Amino acid sequence: MIYKNKKGISNVITMLIIIALVLVAIGAVWYVVQNVLEEGQLETEQATSDIFNTCAGAGGTVTTEDGNCTGGEIRIIGGEYCCIV
């Protein structure tokens, strides 16, 4: 079969498609980076408050590293092992 009309996609359309794909890729990367930064910020704020707080001030009880902390988690707060329920 012989094609007489051999027209392809114009350069303008090709550039618009490329620009759209680049913008979508940038948006996806920005979304991931933003979530990672927010998680890091929350962890930093929690760690900072743990340094300058006391176990009693955080509503916990002082324990040892491998102490009994039923139903809670052991965190280091103010240099002490603290059981937060």
Describe this structure in words.
With 85 residues, this protein is α+β, with helices and mostly antiparallel strands. The chain folds into two domains: 7-52; 54-85. The chain has one helix spanning 11-52, and strands at residues 61-63, 73-77, 80-84. Strands 1-3-2 form a three-stranded antiparallel β-sheet. A hairpin with a 2-residue loop joins strand 2 and strand 3.
Please specify the SSE layout and strand pairing.
Layout: H1 11-52, E1 61-63, E2 73-77, E3 80-84
Antiparallel strand pairs: 1-3, 2-3
Summary tags:
3-stranded antiparallel beta sheet; 3 strands; 2 domains; 85 residues; single chain
Per DSSP E runs of 2 or more residues, the count of β-strands stands at 3
* Physical arrangement of strands within the biggest beta sheet: 1-3-2
The succession of helices and strands, N to C, reads HEEE
Structural class: alpha+beta
User: How many distinct helices?
Assistant: 1
Quickly count the domains. Answer: 2
The proportion of residues in beta strands is: 15-25%
Oligomer: single chain
Report Rg.
28 Å
What separation lies between the terminal Cα atoms? 78 Å
Kindly state the mean pLDDT as a whole number? 80
Describe the structure in brief.
It contains 1 helix and 3 strands; from the N terminus they run αβββ.
